[in-house]
Design goal:
Layout (H helix, E strand, L loop, with lengths): L2 H13 L2 H8 L3 H15 L4 E4 L2 E4 L1 H24 L7 E7 L4 H15 L3 E7 L13 E6 L7 E8 L1 E5 L1 H7 L13 E3 L5 E5 L2 E5 L5 E2 L3 H9 L4 E5 H10 L3 E3 L8 E7 L7 H14 L6 E2 L3
Parallel strand pairs: 3-4, 3-5, 8-11, 8-12
Antiparallel strand pairs: 1-2, 5-14, 6-14, 6-15, 7-12, 7-13, 9-10
Helix pairs in contact: 1-2, 1-3, 1-4, 2-3, 5-9
């Protein structure tokens, strides 16, 4: 029984169809279909019921899926036991923030690919919340406060933020001087989030309101520079705007608390070597960025 056939079956089961699994694996749909047919032929049972909407697990498929996944994980663990060093192989699938990832994290992935030429890297960039298990990802790099306690996290750095507004907005509307004054201003937000600020050693939480929302920090920075409101944004996004004078830090007596940069992975006994190597490389590279404070182990 071919291990790639088992892995392919697990991907199809988790992705819900051949097309989605093929995209995850980076192979053609015909290769995925051929592997499934071969596996079902060896087992003598139908594992998947093909439909116009994708593929659904049969009763046998449901029973077999977890066993197949465990076999794949055990094979990976065995390989790492006998090959604890050297080139990484296989595929690393990682999700990253669209706001933070292309500028700060994509170079780290490029360096990982340079150091390990046999490793295949599939990266996705989005500011939406990504379900690692459903989307078949090995890990994600997230910035900010952690929301999903079922995931395992490793902090690799720290990022700082500011409350900002454009000079024109401040001229027309003034600037809040304390957190409780933010309610009187137009806030530029990603959704319905809360904003936090430090009053000495105390964290003050406010629930801003505004008419302009975007799911990306770069878009919010542009809106703030256009004078649409006040924005709570990381320095890595707003430093060029501050340097040019397009945005001005406000309410500086109440700075936002620092946020973490985390590698998130699904629960399990041990992270794969691929994820461990990526984590260590992120710590190494982020330590060299003057806008970020790296953290130790």
């Amino acid at each position: 029984m071919d291990i790639e056939d088992l892995r392919t079956f697990v991907e199809v089961a988790d992705a819900g169809g051949v097309s989605a699994a093929a995209r995850r694996l980076g192979v053609s749909k015909s290769i995925v279909s051929r592997r499934l047919v071969r596996l079902e032929g060896e087992l003598g049972v139908q594992l998947l019921a093909r439909t116009t909407r994708g593929a659904a697990l049969t009763e046998a498929g449901v029973a077999f899926r977890d066993h197949a996944a465990r076999v794949g994980a055990e094979i990976d663990a065995a390989r790492e036991t006998i090959q604890p060093t050297g080139d990484l192989t296989g595929r690393l699938r990682v999700a990253m923030s669209l706001t933070f990832g292309p500028t700060h994290l994509a170079p780290v992935l490029a360096e990982l690919a340079r150091r390990h030429p046999r490793l295949h890297i599939n990266s996705t960039y989005s500011d939406r919340f990504v379900d690692l298990i459903t989307e078949g990802l090995d890990c994600a790099v997230r910035v900010g406060l952690l929301q999903d306690s079922s995931m395992l996290a490793r902090r690799v750095g720290t990022i700082h933020a500011k409350l900002l507004a454009s000079p024109d907005y401040i001229t027309q509307h003034g600037a809040p001087e304390a957190p409780w004054e933010i309610a009187r201003h137009q806030a530029l937000m990603q959704g319905t989030e809360s904003w936090q600020f430090m009053d000495g050693d105390t964290i003050v939480t406010v629930n801003p309101q505004g008419r302009y929302k975007a799911d990306n920090g770069i878009a919010l920075a542009a809106a703030a520079a256009a004078g649409l409101g006040v924005a709570w944004l990381p320095d890595c996004v707003t430093d060029p705007y501050v340097a040019s004078g397009a945005l001005v830090p406000i309410m500086t007596r109440y700075p936002p608390p620092s946020a973490g940069v985390y590698v998130i992975r699904p629960p399990g006994q041990h992270p794969s070597r691929k994820v461990r190597v990526l984590t260590e490389l992120l710590i190494e590279c982020l330590a060299e960025d003057p806008r970020l404070a790296a953290v130790g182990r």
